[in-house]
């Protein structure tokens, strides 16, 4: 949720811890000061299409992270892209002929919606409001309602503050016709009016538009207003009134400060205990010299004699130019700033303008000032002159956000964790509504919830008529996800560890979330993220591919038996005998088949088992043509395996050129010369009786 503020003399009470909604100031000369950085800096360029003069109040609003949302001068409204918001302008009249004040406040209990309160007119302004919806127009924002009359005649200045106990927002103005105060309680769905008829001040007459200088202390305890009526005996004196932020009433009792200086140059300290006035006086001994003077009053106790008796007069600058300090304002960073230029002549072409920074405004005593804290790029004013003297007219909702209830949430949150939602607040008789991503989850003060959705989650609390929110990042709690698996030969697989781990370390030395494996084995990974550390593992089984393994014919001596064995890696064996074991023993002749299967592959193979008691030879072969035509290229003598078998081949000189002990291995004379060769075979019958055979063969190439 975001809150908005515009520069009007309203009162808005703070309930938030140091937020950043007020971290931009739009100044009179269209310079934008950014307090998100240290030190703050200012930029100029396209923030408005007109020159802002001292007669206008400007207001900006940012989100809780300090990102600019939109800004206004009470006539037009601009988005963060420096283009007019849809629905702008608020006023269709020529604002140069009059004065405008404005302030932006959030609409209670309506996220992303804001009120702009603004005045229009010279003596006896009308008070209006507009509503901006920042979700409208595809998230660019839109003025969805405008020029709604709220009060017939008020002075230029307005202020705003939150109702005590988070029960809405007060907008305070001065009734121009009755010279009395009027407060408007801005609630979630209506605006109520409270009139302080007993608290009167004679502010009518010339100069009343200067009442934009109305100031409110940070604790919403005191309201200070200068008297700018030149016909009044109290001209340029300052009135201080007690304000009741529970009722919206302003007390009739007031303190009159005599030495207030010029009305636009005053401000409460950030802690609300001191009131400062910035003015100038000629040197009593040398009237060509001008002193910059600051008056300081202790207003920590509401007592007229004590306050006036606490006056301290600080001289801190002397020159022939105009005073170094002009209007004063307290910034979101708690520091005290004054507007100043360094030349006396407004027509001087190279004038430089700065914000000076008071370093000890909360402490009292002689002010310490950095006169050139923030350089402001100037712009020609509305009469064509380069104006180095400008006013701090950035009206904002002071101290409202700092007093909103602070959500007490964990800095680390993981899925599956239980957390207790609570707010750091002491409000009594509060009404609670807790939302997670816009869904109501509880109406109790401290509910316990679980968040199982990973990523950024929005926690919102509606407490009375305040709305506070905070985004939290939900990280996944790491749980084992690896499972034992298998892979097919020549088909690698991927193993993926738990998602959203900040670090991964596998026993393969890889550091990626997933790895590719092609071998059987056990794989382990250590995953570490913001929630926990997990050791996960998986065993990978390899399923091999099958190839033919049985000979077409298996010859066995008749008194023997033979064992047929299938290769390993199968999950199922199905023999034609009905057996399902990897090996079977054969004692009878016949054709035997087997089917092998695993998760990846299947194979069927067979052999013809023959039992014999003689040595079966091939037909007589005396010619071998080793010419590469795959015909009659080898000497093959036997059709089955023989015991104690030896084949020797000799050339015509008696040298042995080949020997083999495998009766099924033919002789291929590819590496010998053509000619006649002699062979000798020794073996044994199945019954062990010796066998011998000799012969010759002609090799032709």
List key phrases describing it.
701 residues; mainly beta; five-stranded mixed beta sheet; 52 strands; rod-shaped
Give structural notes.
With 701 residues, the protein is mostly beta strands. Helix content is 1%, strand content 44%. It has one helix and 52 strands. Strands 1, 8, 9, 10, 11, 12, 13 and 14 form an eight-stranded mixed sheet that branches. Strands 28-35-34-31-32 form a five-stranded mixed sheet, with no helix packed on it. Strand 15 and strand 16 form a beta hairpin. It is rod-shaped, with a radius of gyration of 49 Å. The two termini are 97 Å apart. The N terminus is likely disordered.
Q: Concise description?
A:
Helices cover 1% and strands 44% of the residues. The protein is mainly β.
Structural class determined from secondary elements = mainly beta
- Using the CA coordinates, give the radius of gyration: 49 Å
Helical content class: under 10%
**% residues in beta strands:** 35-45%
Let me know the number of strands. 52
Shape: rod-shaped
Tally of DSSP helical segments? 1
Low-confidence parts lasting 5 or more residues at pLDDT below 50?
1-18, 50-54, 205-212, 343-349, 380-389
Oligomer: single chain
Main sheet specs: 8 strands, mixed
The overall pLDDT average reads: 82
> For the terminal residues, how far apart are their CA atoms?
97 Å
């Amino acid at each position: 949720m975001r809150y908005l503020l515009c520069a009007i003399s309203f009162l808005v009470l703070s309930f938030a811890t140091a937020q950043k909604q007020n971290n931009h100031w739009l100044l009179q000369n269209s310079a934008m000061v950014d307090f998100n950085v240290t030190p703050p800096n200012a930029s100029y360029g396209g923030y408005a299409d007109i020159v802002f003069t001292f007669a206008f109040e400007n207001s900006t609003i940012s989100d809780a992270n300090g990102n600019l949302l939109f800004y206004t001068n009470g006539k037009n409204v601009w988005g963060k892209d420096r283009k007019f918001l849809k629905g702008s302008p608020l006023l269709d009249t020529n604002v140069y002929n009059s004065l405008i004040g404005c302030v932006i406040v959030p609409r209670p209990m309506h996220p992303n919606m804001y009120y702009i309160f603004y005045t229009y007119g010279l003596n006896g302004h009308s008070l209006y409001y507009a509503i901006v919806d920042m979700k409208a127009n595809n998230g660019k924002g839109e003025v969805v309602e405008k020029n709604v009359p709220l009060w017939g005649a008020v002075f230029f200045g307005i202020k705003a503050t939150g109702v005590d106990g988070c029960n809405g927002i007060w907008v305070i103005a001065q009734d121009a016709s009755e010279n009395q105060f009027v407060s408007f309680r801005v609630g979630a769905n209506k605006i109520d009016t409270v009139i302080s008829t007993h608290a009167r001040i004679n502010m009518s007459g010339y100069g009343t538009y200067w009442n934009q200088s109305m100031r409110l202390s940070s604790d919403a305890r005191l309201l200070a207003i200068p008297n700018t009526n030149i016909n009044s005996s109290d001209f340029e004196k300052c009135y201080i009134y007690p304000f009741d932020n529970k009722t919206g009433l302003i007390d009739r009792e007031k303190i009159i400060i005599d030495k207030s200086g010029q009305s636009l140059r005053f401000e409460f300290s950030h802690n609300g205990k001191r009131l400062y006035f910035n003015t100038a006086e000629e040197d009593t001994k040398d009237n060509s010299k001008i002193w910059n003077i600051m008056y300081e009053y202790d207003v920590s106790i509401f007592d007229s004699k004590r306050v006036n008796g606490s006056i301290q007069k600080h001289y801190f600058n002397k020159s022939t130019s105009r005073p170094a300090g002009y209007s004063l304002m307290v910034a979101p960073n708690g520091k005290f700033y004054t507007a100043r230029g360094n030349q006396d002549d407004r027509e001087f072409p190279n004038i430089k303008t700065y914000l000076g920074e008071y370093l000890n405004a909360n402490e009292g005593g002689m002010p310490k000032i950095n006169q050139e804290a923030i350089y402001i790029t100037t712009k020609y004013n509305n009469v064509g002159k380069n104006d180095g003297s400008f006013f701090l007219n950035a009206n904002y909702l002071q101290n409202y956000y700092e007093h909103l209830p602070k959500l007490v949430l964990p800095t680390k949150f993981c899925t599956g964790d239980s957390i207790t939602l609570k707010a750091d607040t002491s409000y009594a008789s509060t009404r609670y509504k807790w939302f997670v991503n816009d869904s109501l989850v509880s109406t109790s003060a401290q509910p316990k919830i679980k968040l199982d959705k990973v990523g950024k989650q929005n926690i919102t609390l509606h407490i009375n008529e305040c709305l506070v929110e905070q985004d939290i990042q939900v990280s996944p709690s790491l749980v084992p996800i690896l499972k034992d698996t298998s892979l097919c030969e020549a088909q690698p697989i991927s193993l993926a560890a738990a998602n959203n781990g900040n670090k991964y370390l596998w026993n393969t030395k890889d550091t990626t979330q997933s790895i590719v494996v092609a071998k059987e084995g056990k794989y382990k990974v250590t995953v570490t993220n913001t929630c926990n550390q997990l050791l996960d593992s998986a065993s990978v089984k390899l399923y091999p591919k099958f190839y033919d393994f049985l000979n077409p014919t298996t010859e066995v001596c008749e008194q023997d038996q033979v064992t047929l064995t299938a290769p390993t890696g199968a999950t199922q064996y199905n023999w034609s005998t009905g057996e399902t074991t990897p090996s079977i023993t054969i004692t009878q002749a016949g054709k035997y088949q087997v089917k092998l299967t695993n998760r990846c592959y299947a194979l069927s193979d067979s052999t013809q088992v023959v039992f014999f008691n003689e040595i079966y030879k091939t037909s007589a072969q005396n010619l071998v043509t080793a010419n590469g035509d795959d015909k009659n290229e080898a000497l093959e003598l036997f059709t089955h395996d023989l015991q104690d078998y030896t084949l020797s081949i000799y050339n015509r000189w008696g040298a042995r050129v080949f020997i083999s002990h495998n009766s099924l291995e033919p002789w291929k004379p590819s590496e010998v010369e053509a000619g006649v060769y002699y062979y000798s075979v020794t073996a044994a019958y199945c019954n062990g009786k010796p066998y011998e055979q000799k012969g010759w063969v002609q090799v032709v190439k």
